[in-house]
Specification:
Elements lengths: L2 H24 L10 H23 L5 H9 L8 H22 L1 H6 L3 H8 L8 H21 L19 H15 L9 H13 L15 H20 L1
Helix pairs in contact: 1-2, 1-4, 1-6, 2-8, 3-4, 3-7, 3-10, 4-9, 7-8, 7-10, 9-10
Length: 242
């Protein structure tokens, strides 16, 4: 398996299980309907665990363009490899979201509320305030990337470079994402990952769903720009403190 393939597969698993828990909680008629925020945050944490376990030996398990940018900005990952990683992450996110839609087609069509349908795929703010929503996404991603940068004992092959979420180990990074969701996720839904939001939002736009509403493209820049900005700030602070 190549690093490119590993990032596709790892991100596919992340989104399949992460958006899958969203579907199980919010869609009409599922076994987990209305099971709540704790189930969602736990499901996303375990989704990260699965994606990291599979992809770490081959790519370092970035699974997130913000992680790739943050590590590159901190000098811990080659900038020239960043575009291929980000492309792979987006492709994996598209595939994962498509899988969630296919599995839950009947439940999507039974769910009358368009906001619930969209909420399976992508994030939206509890209170729409672009400046504060941007801050929320930035702070959540700052915590993610800053912590990753301080777990520097893992390597890929003969490299001595910190290369991704895999440097934390699968269980610690799952707990990290779980903690971010519980503490900082309630205002925006904590995308903390541009591919995680953009890929599924594209699938929502493309697939047929009964009663589907807007994909809310006017908000879509927040879960892209916020995480990249937060990751960059984390990298700059890491460099200043090193």
């Amino acid at each position: 398996m190549t690093a490119f393939t590993a990032e596709i597969i790892g991100t596919f698993l992340l989104i399949l299980m992460g958006c899958g828990v969203n579907a199980n909680v919010v869609l009409e008629g599922t076994k987990g309907q209305n099971s709540g925020w704790i189930v969602i945050t736990t499901g996303w944490a375990l989704a990260v665990f699965v994606g990291v376990v599979v992809s770490t030996p081959y790519s370092g398990a970035h699974l997130n363009p913000a992680v790739t940018v943050g590590l590159a900005a901190a000098g811990e990952f080659p900038w020239q490899q960043a575009p291929s990683y980000i492309l792979a992450q987006l492709l994996g996110a598209l595939a994962g979201a498509l899988g969630v839609w296919l599995m839950h087609k009947d439940h999507f069509n039974r769910t009358a509320e368009p906001g619930m349908q969209l909420g399976v795929f992508s994030t939206s703010p509890a209170i729409r305030n672009p400046a504060l929503n941007l801050l929320g996404e930035g702070l959540g991603t700052f915590v993610l990337v800053f912590t990753v940068l301080y777990f520097s004992d893992a390597t890929l092959g003969d490299s001595q470079t910190v290369i991704g979420l895999g440097s934390l180990g699968a269980l610690p990074v799952a707990l990290l994402v779980w903690g971010i969701g519980l503490s900082l996720g309630g205002t925006t839904g904590y995308a903390i990952n541009p591919a995680r939001d953009l890929g599924p939002r594209i699938i929502h736009y493309l697939v047929p769903i009964k009663g589907k509403g807007s994909s809310q493209w006017g908000y879509s820049w927040v879960p892209v720009v916020g995480p990249v900005a937060g990751a960059t700030v984390a990298a700059l602070l890491y460099l200043a403190l090193s």
